[in-house]
TrEMBL record:
This is Transposase, partial. Residues 218-345 form the DUF659 domain. It holds the Pfam family DUF659. GO terms for molecular function: zinc ion binding. Residues 121-157 are annotated as: Disordered. Residues 135-147 have a biased composition (Low complexity). The keyword Acetylation does not apply. Its main location: nucleus. It is found in: Nucleus. The keyword Secreted does not apply. Keywords: Metal-binding, Nucleus, Zinc, Zinc-finger. Coiled coil: none annotated.
Length: 463
């Protein structure tokens, strides 16, 4: 064969691939066969008698059709796929056959059941010549972006796409995460979340902010609410499960009056609802009517209710005991004990009849304890409100692997004990900070007096 004939063969290969990324070395034949074919083509004409000239037949034809000659021009330009039995208009082009096989569901399943090493090369690497060319240009102009052709596509076939039901379940679970953790819906638009989800499961779509907030019938928010309510109602309606109701009146950050209702059983505590009372005062009549509404809604499993210890709530107990004679109604015992201890220990300072500084009543046995508790609060609040010493204290505590100082809260009785404990652990660090030369020399005269007071408390051997 002359050199021109070799060039003609190569052109035939290019035409047959119809723009596909096919080279002599990439055909699904052994390299030795290619070398043998090339060697034979360069031999003398006498040696080539009886051997069909031209490029080898692409194996995609045998994967798609039972007819071994479907690719020849003497055959029609369409054939029946041996997998899905659909008519394929291939026009004698390899690319058309590949396109069909990659869309054929039965062939996809066959490939998923086949080891990756046993799959044809064109299945694992479907990038075309034009795509690689464009990717090369893109990577040259923008090196920071990876080329689309560098990522094998076999993984997209190995990990099947979500079905419609799976996508809906995924959306509901994502939505419940946002509702349960009180996460802002805006976080769903974070690009790193979308990137992580695509890495784990290509093709999966996250719900939008609008979908997360959709409380219309069939919306994610409404569906999630109905599912949770169904589970709660099922638990509360268990005939073998007795329920106690707890109420708590409080004010939110907007200073709006709110009453929370909880259902408590031996294994769970369930939030029932919050009632914003608005202009309605918390008198005994209204409180009893609203609690009666909750009891009737929950049914016969309710054994009673525990409320606050205010005078209005005490009157409410009497009203409800007449309406529900088999139920119990009383105040919070833990709160009652706290109030009892507070009445005993927390006496208030009063000015003496003749004038002078306020003092505890004569003979008050817990004066030393009250003074100590107030001193601890003063120390904690000083370091909490002064940024400079607060930052230095925080750094020193972190270096010593100690927790921050606990600030006492009026309605969190355990924080008093936590305050004492944190101050004791940080005693050496606090002494070091208040003993520095410039600790008492900063600020106005009033601030200096306060710093001297804090230093005296911390350095007192009895503290």
């Amino acid at each position: 064969m002359e050199i021109d004939e070799i060039h003609s063969c190569l052109e035939d290969v290019s035409d047959q691939s119809d723009g596909e990324n096919i080279h002599i070395t990439q055909l699904d034949i052994e390299d030795q066969n290619v070398a043998t074919t090339a060697s034979t083509s360069l031999s003398s004409p006498d040696d080539n008698l009886g051997i069909k000239r031209g490029h080898p037949v692409h194996n995609v034809w045998s994967y798609a059709f039972d007819d071994p000659d479907a690719h020849t021009s003497s055959k029609p330009n369409h054939a029946v796929c041996k997998h899905c039995k659909e008519s394929v208009r291939h026009h004698h082009k390899v690319l058309s056959v590949k396109t069909h096989l990659k869309r054929c569901k039965k062939f996809k399943k066959l490939m998923l059941d086949t080891a990756v090493v046993d799959r044809p090369g064109w299945w694992n690497d479907p990038a075309s010549k034009s795509k690689k060319s464009n990717a090369s240009k893109s990577s040259t102009s923008n090196p920071s972006k990876s080329s689309p052709g560098t990522q094998p596509s076999a993984r997209s076939f190995a990990v099947p796409m979500f079905t419609t039901s799976q996508q809906k379940k995924f959306n509901r679970d994502i939505a419940m995460f946002f509702y349960n953790t009180d996460t802002s819906f805006q976080r769903i638009e974070d690009p790193f979340l979308a990137s992580a989800v695509q890495l784990a499961r290509p093709g999966v779509k996250l719900p939008t902010r609008k979908e997360l907030a959709d409380d219309s019938p069939g919306g994610l928010l409404q569906q999630s609410y109905e599912e949770v309510k169904h589970k709660v109602d099922k638990l509360l309606s268990n005939p073998n499960q007795f329920i106690g109701i707890t109420t708590d009146a409080w004010s939110n950050i907007s200073n709006e009056s709110v009453i929370n209702y909880m259902a408590v059983c031996p294994t769970k505590s369930l939030f029932i609802e919050s009632v914003y009372t608005g202009e309605q005062g918390h008198d005994a009549q209204w409180l009893s009517q609203d609690l009666s509404r909750v009891i009737d809604h929950l049914g016969d499993n309710v054994a009673g209710a525990v409320t606050d210890n205010t005078s209005a709530n005490k009157k409410m107990w009497s009203i409800l005991e007449r309406e529900y004679p088999t139920h119990f109604f009383h105040g919070c015992v833990a709160h009652g004990l706290n109030l009892l201890v507070k009445d005993i220990l927390c006496a208030k300072k009063k000015e003496p009849p003749g004038g002078g500084p306020a003092a505890y009543p004569d003979g008050y046995p817990f004066e030393d304890l009250m003074v100590f508790a107030n001193d601890c609060k003063e120390v904690v609040m000083f370091f909490h409100n002064h940024h400079g010493v607060k930052a230095r204290l925080k750094k020193a505590l972190a270096s010593a692997k100690l927790s921050s100082l606990v600030k006492p809260a009026p309605t969190r009785w355990g924080t008093i004990h936590g305050c004492f404990k944190s101050l004791k652990a940080a005693d050496d660090i606090l002494n070091s900070l208040v003993s520095e030369r410039d600790f008492v020399n900063k600020g106005s005269a009033k601030q200096k007096d306060k710093r001297l007071e804090i230093k005296a408390i911390v350095t007192d051997p009895d503290f």
